[in-house]
Design a protein that fits this description.
This protein is an alpha/beta fold. It has helices spanning about 10-20, 35-40, 50-60, 85-95, 105-115, 130-135, 135-140, 150-155, 165-170, 170-180, 200-210, 230-255, 260-280, and strands at about 5-10, 25-30, 65-70, 95-100, 120-125, 145-150, 185-190, 215-220.
């Protein structure tokens, strides 16, 4: 099966273009609590989407699923409501899948699963060292539908220079084995257009197949709509980019004998990238 691809946007026109090109999940990103503190100064996206955005996309989509990333489990403050209020609003907006980010304990996950209460499918985003340390306890909980490994925050948590070190050092593969043992669909990280990215996308896609991943996020660089605003050009990027990725996936499926050599080359490239980062400092 091809990877289930996700794209982050709250723009209905862009969402429809992505859906028509073959993106299976439109991703509304409501997470902001604590994000600027841990990612301050980094070239990362902090979307600040809302339940109203989710409801608007729900009415616009025809085939693609609606995935909404909530905030980490939190109590109400003067600045924002509680997780209970937020999750109820997300469910009312029509989310098919809700992703819980930046949890550290099984208790946080247990609270999330209880608050969702089977009203939407659940996806856990493993992106803290503490969550990785508690992975077996967390996976023993009932009500988890899918899991995902967030490379950016997890690599920050481990003090790594480059987020794909988590792929090269076997961390992602070890987690994937645990996910597979429990029969859960899983994915990790983001992919750019073919030939793009510090670590070319081809290496990452083939690694998805080697470890049995089922889904990935299309990276912002695939189509950065903060820079590219012309809808026909956005449509061209999605149509051409998805066509190329799907064709490459067919090659990956047809040549499993190349997966291990791809892993070795990926590790070598990651090391070179990290060496370059060190030299620039």
């Amino acid at each position: 099966m091809p990877l289930k691809l996700m794209y982050i946007t709250n723009n209905p026109e862009v969402a429809r273009i992505a859906e028509e090109a073959g993106v299976e999940r439109i991703f509304v990103d409501m997470e902001y609590i604590g994000k600027s503190d841990r990612q301050g100064g980094m070239d990362t996206v902090q979307s600040r989407h809302t339940p109203a955005d989710a409801a608007l996309l729900r009415s616009s989509l025809k085939r693609a699923e609606l995935l909404v990333r909530c905030n980490p489990i939190h109590e109400a403050t003067e600045s924002y409501g509680s997780s209970t209020d937020e999750l109820n609003a997300i469910i009312e907006a029509g989310a098919d899948v809700i992703m819980l980010p930046y949890f550290k304990t099984a208790e946080e996950v247990r609270t999330f699963l209880r608050l969702v209460g089977g009203r939407a499918r659940t996806m856990l985003l493993f992106e803290t060292p503490e969550a990785v340390a508690a992975v077996e306890e967390i996976l023993s909980l009932e009500g988890i539908d899918e899991v995902f490994v967030g490379l950016n925050d997890l690599s920050l948590g481990y003090g790594m220079k480059f987020m794909f070190r988590l792929v090269a050092d076997g961390t992602v593969e070890r987690l994937c084995h645990l996910f597979a043992d429990r029969g859960l669909p899983y994915g990790f990280g983001g992919i750019a257009a073919l030939g793009k990215g510090m670590l070319p996308s081809e290496y990452v896609i083939k690694e998805h197949y080697r470890v049995g991943s089922t889904c990935a996020i299309l990276a912002r660089s695939f189509c950065n709509t903060q820079i590219i605003t012309d809808l026909p050009e956005i449509r061209r990027i999605f149509n051409d980019g998805l066509r190329d990725i799907r064709a490459y996936e067919e090659t990956c499926r047809a040549t499993p004998e190349t997966w291990e050599s791809n892993r070795r080359e990926l590790c070598e490239i990651v090391s070179r990238i990290e060496d370059g980062m060190t030299a620039r400092k």
